TrEMBL record:
InterPro entries tied to this protein: HTH_MarR-typ, MarR/SlyA-like, WH-like_DNA-bd_sf, WH_DNA-bd_sf
Limits of the HTH marR-type domain: 12-147
Organism annotation: Hoeflea marina
Signal peptide interval: none
Gene Ontology terms describing biological process: response to stress
Protein name as annotated: DNA-binding MarR family transcriptional regulator
Presence of the UniProt keyword DNA-binding in the record: yes
Entry-linked PROSITE patterns: HTH_MARR_2
């Protein structure tokens, strides 16, 4: 086995904690959104759609969120069946519609946000501004490094 540097060990620890955190966020998201009838996965995709300034294809959504196109497609299909997203014609590609929140989806997402804000505010108060900014900086740098290596 090759010896790791201090930085390599620190990054390994960060990756391990990030994986553990992802699991905890999914569990917490499922619990938080149960009252509005969303899973964490559906809430996450709706959040990306709401955040972006214009409708995007499933492929574009998958790139933004860093998940496979197939996984995002499955969730978008579920959201469409539930009437929470609309599939709009895409002038650039006939077979790849643009995904937008429907009126019903916008209403449900607003309910989800009303639950999320006090939850994230309470968590932020437990952690502290300095640590949150440092964590965001480190995780953003790691994501960018991975994206550069992807090609």
């Amino acid at each position: 086995m090759t010896d790791s540097t201090d930085s390599g060990r620190a990054l390994g620890g960060l990756i391990f904690e990030t994986l553990r955190l992802a699991g905890r966020l999914t569990l917490a998201g499922d619990a938080l959104m149960a009252g509005v009838g969303l899973t964490a996965a559906r809430w996450q995709i709706m959040g990306v759609i709401a955040y972006l300034p214009s409708p995007r294809t499933v492929s574009a959504l998958s790139r933004v969120i860093g998940q496979s196109r197939q996984a995002v497609q499955r969730i978008v299909n579920d959201l469409h069946t539930a009437g929470l997203v609309d599939l709009l014609p895409n002038p650039a590609h006939r077979r790849a519609p643009l995904v937008a929140l429907s009126d019903r989806g916008q209403t449900l997402y607003a309910e989800a946000e009303a639950r999320r804000v006090p939850w994230t505010e309470a968590l932020a108060a437990d952690i502290g501004d300095h640590d949150l900014k440092a964590a965001q900086t480190a995780l953003s740098a790691l994501r960018r490094a991975l994206e550069r290596r992807e090609g």
